[in-house]
Design brief:
The chain is α/β, with parallel strands linked by helices and about 600 residues long. It has helices at about 25-55, 60-80, 85-115, 120-160, 180, 185-195, 200-255, 260-300, 340-345, 365-370, 385-395, 395-400, 420-425, 455-465, 480-495, 560-570, 575-580; strands at about 300-305, 310-315, 325, 330-335, 355-360, 380-385, 410-415, 435-440, 465-475, 495-505, 530-540. Strands 7-6-5-8-9-11-10 form a seven-stranded mixed sheet. Strands 1-2-3-4 form a four-stranded antiparallel sheet, with helices on one face. The protein is elongated.
Length: about 600
């Protein structure tokens, strides 16, 4: 009997690279996914916040940014298919582009607002670009991880003892002998050796998305609590872009450098260095840029420009002239005609008992100035959200002169906090006021919608003494009648009887914002134009619209003028406005 020839297996060829441990690829990739996700959410929040400041209506801006960005992320995932064959260089270029676009987005958005006066389409463009690049990240990283794990599997099969050939005296691999052909022990060992070759694709996806979501959490918390207060919006975005570029480019050039050709490696190094150079240069010049953009918005007569914890506060005006006060780019006080607004706001409500007065808002001290012109006022409480505004109203020479140092008066107490929260929980239950003055931003601004809700007016009614009156700045009855009459419907739903009236405002040359609408080109402003107000009292009896017998001499307001203003505002009332529903916390109507 002739024995079958013994099959001799040559030693396997050595792999091009030694097999890598699983953690050598997966953990660094997950760390970069974490960092890039944090950066991506910072870009997203920065666009929402800056657009809310510059354009207004935070709900609309957030909806535009989020919806466009999510759509673009899906588009980016589809486009990433074309880069899978060059996943390493593709991911490096995507991160470089994302760092450049995301890092510079705040500066470009602010520049378009300052010099072009329009930034909506710029906002949409950046949301689309950042979304596309962000959506391409995960598919490209998946390709890189799968390629790395496939290479490890091939290296494992090529390694000694890896099951790449048959043993001496055994049956060749793939000959159909199976485990029994070589004996149970050999077959079990081969089965155990081959198990690591197959990687867990589902587990990889889970790891990537877990790192992505945790990174988004960290980025979302870092933006309001670290980046915004420490660096500001412009510098914070630039620093975030630099971190994004270093993390993305560093991963490819370090971990996947063998997948790059010399030309691709040089391209990535050059691109990332260029991005970092642009971001660094912009960071150095950001203060000069901000000053130039601020001058483009406010003119050359800027007296004070500060960032409080809540907003940007700018005071403008020539030396010796009345100042203008801007909050986040919106005109809050026009020094040349603010007396028209504050006289109309305060004095009709002072027609009656007025020993104790509550002013909601009014941190500029101008409403308090008008109240203090009545010598029989005993106490004035001002509830201001931003301590920086009240501090500036006390210390800035121009503002202090304009408000006649009202906030220094011993009868005035300034409380800091949200007016809604203050009315609900801070105000002692037994404390009552004869007059409540709502000197708050326009109801058309989303952030202030709760301060024009039925619930808010219910809280205000609880703060009124018997026979007390509430006056509300409700926006322009002629420019935005739907908003104005929604405030009226809300007051009536809260149990008030109302009396509408208005006041003309806006001398020529003054920039207007959405919370101070209306403009006249000179001369006497129209009685019902500019600003709209509602005088209200709990119950079914409408309050009297007039001036108190002890009213001081006023510059713009008379009893006859109030009657004319009431008729002008009433002309904007229609059947449609009479049928408007009230605004509530859960269903804001503005």
């Amino acid at each position: 009997m002739i024995d079958p020839p013994v099959t001799m297996t040559l030693p396997p060829k050595r792999a091009a690279r030694s097999p890598e441990r699983p953690t050598a690829v997966r953990y660094p990739v997950l760390a970069v996914v974490f960092v890039c996700a944090a950066c991506g959410l910072v870009y997203e929040l920065e666009l929402v916040a800056l657009a809310s400041y510059l354009i207004g209506d935070s709900v609309t801006q957030a909806s535009v940014v989020l919806s466009v960005m999510v759509f673009a992320m899906g588009l980016g995932s589809l486009l990433a298919k074309r880069l899978r064959c060059r996943a390493a260089v593709g991911f490096g270029l995507v991160e470089g582009g994302l760092a450049l676009i995301g890092g510079c987005s705040a500066m470009v958005l602010y520049a378009s607002f300052a010099w072009l006066g329009e930034s909506r389409w710029v906002l949409v463009g950046f949301s689309l670009a950042i979304g596309v690049l962000t959506g391409a990240e995960i598919p490209l990283l998946m390709s890189l991880i799968q390629r790395a794990e496939s290479f490890r599997a091939e290296s494992f099969r090529a390694a000694p003892g890896g099951g790449g050939g048959s043993s001496v005296g055994g049956s060749p691999a793939g000959s159909g002998g199976g485990p029994s052909a070589a004996g149970p022990g050999v077959g079990g060992a081969e089965h155990r050796r081959r198990r690591p070759e197959s990687h867990d694709a589902a587990g990889t996806v889970a790891d990537l998305f877990a790192a992505d979501y945790v990174g988004a959490l960290v980025g979302g918390l870092a933006f309001p609590f670290l980046l915004l207060p420490w660096l500001g919006q412009l510098t914070g975005a630039l620093v975030t872009g630099a971190v994004n570029s270093i993390a993305g480019g560093g991963l490819v050039l370090w971990l996947f450098r063998h997948d790059l050709t010399a030309r691709s490696r040089a391209l990535l190094v050059g691109a990332n260095l260029s991005v970092l150079a642009v971001l660094a240069t912009a960071t150095v010049l950001v203060d000069d840029f901000e000053q130039a953009a601020r001058r483009a918005v406010y003119g050359d007569s800027i007296r004070v420009a500060i960032h409080t914890e809540l907003q940007e506060v700018v005071v403008t005006g020539s030396r010796g002239g009345p100042p203008d006060l801007f909050l986040d780019g919106r005109l809050r006080v026009g020094g040349r005609d603010e007396y028209r607004y504050h006289e109309a706001l305060v004095h009709p409500a002072m027609n009656g008992p007025h020993g104790r007065v509550l002013i909601l808002g009014g941190g500029d001290g101008l409403a308090a100035r008008e109240v203090l012109r009545y010598p029989d006022v005993d106490a004035v409480t001002v509830v201001e959200l931003d301590p920086g505004v009240a501090r500036l109203a006390r210390t800035d020479p121009g503002l202090a002169a304009l408000n006649e140092r009202a906030l220094h008066d011993p009868r005035v107490t300034v409380a800091y906090g949200d007016a809604f929260t203050w009315l609900r929980s801070v105000r002692p239950v037994q404390e009552r006021y004869d007059v409540v003055i709502s000197d708050l931003p326009d109801p058309g601004i989303t952030a202030g919608a709760k301060l024009y809700s039925e619930e808010f007016y219910g809280l205000a009614a609880g703060a009124l003494a018997d026979g007390g009156r509430l006056v509300v700045h409700a926006g322009s009855a002629t420019a935005r009648p739907r908003t104005y009459w929604t405030v009226d419907a809300t007051l009536r739903a809260a149990g008030y009887a109302t009396r509408p009236y208005g006041a003309g405002g806006r001398t020529g040359g003054v920039t207007t914002g959405p919370d101070r609408a209306g403009r006249s080109t000179g001369g006497a402003p129209p009685a019902g134009g500019g600003w709209g107000f509602l005088l209200a009292a709990p119950g079914s009896v409408r309050p009297s619209l007039g001036l108190d017998v002890a009213a001081p001499q006023l510059r713009s307001l008379t009893v006859q003028g109030l009657r004319v203003a009431e008729r002008c505002v009433e002309r904007s009332r229609t059947e449609e406005t009479d049928a408007l529903p009230p605004s509530t916390l859960v269903h804001p109507r503005y």
